[in-house]
Write a structure and sequence with these properties.
14 strands, about 325 residues, UDP-N-acetylmuramoyl-L-alanine:D-glutamate ligase, nine-stranded mixed beta sheet, five-stranded mixed beta sheet, alpha/beta, globular
């Protein structure tokens, strides 16, 4: 059995729909944006569409699916309800060989969903209803489910809720107790802005590895440019992985900087999932004890594949 990675994140069903620009205008949606919506708005939009495809989504779930695509052994914990979408979510992860380590039960809120409107120009506009996914709490984490993993991968998005914050700290406590490495993705620049102080403390005190893009890293370190951020990060004895889109990627390991060029592609179809799949490629090689150079290269290869297709799944 290969070594194991556990991802913990928001469990969101991705609902893909093809629409024209007039649909976006009619429903007052800004093309290319991601909007958080409530249950009523979600149900209203759902009643107006013809669903093209449904699959298990969420940033960390995408990363776990990418690891499975590379024949790695990955698992996921995310909160779903005992409803139609919850069932679809579970089946979708099973289909791509990701172990689902969450025992669902009847909940007050439905399983979270993101309606992804794809216009003829391949642009994606998202309306996301977090549903029960945002209520993942300490009681949903079973020590027996996580104590045998080698690495736990958390997403910054989880820090947004009081309940999730407590859960986050509990997972860190269990990981330390069972000698499991903790990695985290910064998720989103606005998320970093909201929680900069907390994230910086987590990096210093708890994390083994941090993954983020250039803007997120600069925001975290409160620096205007990457050179200044790297200067500070080199002083910290951590593994920091930084993606830079077409400018490639780099890793700072124990004060040493490794860099990798991006892989040029003919046509970019959809940038969604590029960071998630980069993380998948990097973490799979990392857990296999590959060189940092190979980890970066594998991350770049997976990111280059996913941006040439619609959606965040390669399998």
């Amino acid at each position: 059995m290969s070594k194991k990675i556990l991802g913990i994140g928001n469990a969101i069903v991705d609902i893909f729909v093809k629409v024209d620009d007039s649909f976006l205008l009619k429903n007052q949606l800004i093309k290319g944006s991601m909007k958080l919506i409530n249950k009523f708005e979600f149900e209203t939009l759902k009643s107006k569409i013809n669903i093209e495809k449904i699959e298990a989504g969420g940033s960390v779930a995408n990363t776990m699916a990418g690891i499975s695509y590379l024949k790695g052994n990955s698992s996921f914990i995310g909160k779903i309800n005992l409803d139609k979408f919850g069932n679809i979510y579970k089946k979708s992860l099973k289909k791509v060989n990701v172990n689902f380590e969450y025992q669902e039960k009847k909940e007050d809120l439905p399983t979270g969903g993101s309606i992804i409107f794809i216009t003829p120009d391949s642009e994606r506009t998202m309306c996301t209803y977090l549903g029960i996914s945002s209520q993942l709490c300490k009681n949903d984490i079973n020590e027996n489910h996580i104590k045998n993993y080698e690495l736990i991968f958390l997403e910054g998005y989880l820090w947004d809720k009081g309940l999730s914050e407590e859960m986050f700290n509990y997972v860190i406590y269990l990981a330390k107790k069972n000698n499991i490495k903790i990695a985290m993705s910064l998720s989103d620049i606005f998320c970093v802005t909201r929680h900069q102080k907390n994230f910086h403390e987590i990096l210093i005190n708890d994390l083994h590895m941090l993954i983020g893009n250039e803007n997120e890293i600069n925001e975290l370190m409160q620096k205007k440019n990457l050179i200044d951020s790297i200067k500070e990060l080199k002083k910290i004895n951590k593994s920091i992985v930084i993606t830079r889109s077409e400018n490639g990627s780099l890793a700072i390991i124990n004060g040493k900087v490794f860099s990798c060029e991006s892989i040029k592609v003919e046509r970019v179809l959809d940038l969604t999932g590029a960071g998630d799949l980069f993380a998948a490629g990097f973490l799979k090689e990392y857990i296999d004890n590959s060189s940092i150079q190979k980890c970066l290269k594998n991350g770049s290869e997976l990111a280059s594949k996913i941006i040439q297709k619609i959606g965040a799944r390669l399998n």
